[in-house]
Amino acid sequence: MNFQTSPSPYDLANLNVLVVDDQEDVRGGLKRLISSLGCQVETSSSAEDALQALKAKPVDIVFTDLKMGGMSGEELLKEINQRWTDIVVVLITGHGTIELAVACLQNGASHFLTKPFDNKEILAFVERVGYGVLAKRQVKNQSKRKKGQSFIAVGNKMRRVLELVEQVAQRKVPVLIEGASGTGKELVAREIHNRSPVSEKPFLAINCIALPDSLLESELFGYKKGAFTGAHKDSTGLFEQVQGGTIFLDEVSSMSPLFQGKLLRVLQEKTVRPLGSNAEKHVDFRVIAASNQGLKKLVEKGDFREDLYYRLQVMNIFLPALNERQECIPALTSYFLKQASSEFFYEEYQLPKISPAAMDALSNHTWPGNIRQLENTIQRALIINKGETILPSHLGLSDETSVSESLLEQELTSYEESKKQAIEAFQSEYVQTILQRTNGNISHAAEMCGLTRAALQRIMRKLEQEQIRTN
User: Fold this and answer.
1) Does the first or last residue of the chain, that is N or C, have fewer Cβ atoms within 10 Å of its Cβ?
2) What average pLDDT does range 169-175 have in this prediction?
């Protein structure tokens, strides 16, 4: 059976590039080079022709020579900045016009290249900027899609994941998603649901590791009034609530052997028996499970039921760690930056840029916490940053560079003020992390970090007041 897959919005084939130069060999050479990445590349022999091309078709990146007959590259840059503010402009210059190119950078150009070209530099630039452009475009389209995070599939590994998502979405088969913590397993599950014929029906998720067997059973199967202490009225379980939609069971490897048997029966019979009831209820659902441990190895050790394993993994999707798909980092960074700014700041907030050095630091980091850690890092940088550009020192990825770079790259503050900012940054990151781990349960969070509930709440109120004050 052949499946038609939708192209990823983060594929460089969606990137439109225009090369403007009055020398045919330069135009042809750049077109062949940039096209090797899959980009759509057009050429113009003059700035005047380029303006006509820009009117006719959307363009993401323009490479233009500075010195041309007729309108110059500098004049073309001014026209583009006035009429198409989202276009990235790269200037092509000989050694004699480098000073002019630098001046153009101050007037809105994004980069300049000197002849003769370094092919590797051009390809690296187009990839880095291109993925960022595509990510911004996707963020703009979010209002047209269902609510939720954007599925970013950059590079061969994640495009293969997207192909599997597209295939399994159209069939009501159980899916097992495996990968390390923080790799985006729930996001993949939601994408499968959103692309399925039942996307308008509920998607209900439960973290199996967060609940003991008794609570897990009552949440999934429901219960009757009086079934246990505190059961003051009947409650419908998630399997019944989903009504033909999708149940997502996160971290199924944490289930006890006893509960594994109960779940297996539900999957086989498509019926549930609420706690305290003698009656079976028919349920209609599609199950997607996830685990940060290889279930097959757990089966071999005797820690997971083999029959349940084969029920859950009719189709299997493996998510690679972030350090195995570093090509995703620029697009993810752009997405998380936009998302965090809309969450933490008001509409008039000016989104800062990511400096090339900061992007290099992000791309070269090992990311043991995967995508979740990257998102937290971007949120931290956005809050700490006081200027128009996020620098490596704002990321908090290296203890060796954070203090020195802060002193060199930011306005020097007093010792006490710097200390106060560092403490607030630590508190903000720590509180956010601990609340994420406890799913927002303040009492549990306070217990884990050795504070009273009141003390943790005081810190949270202080952070909220400080954020309001700085905004």
Assistant:
1) N
2) 93
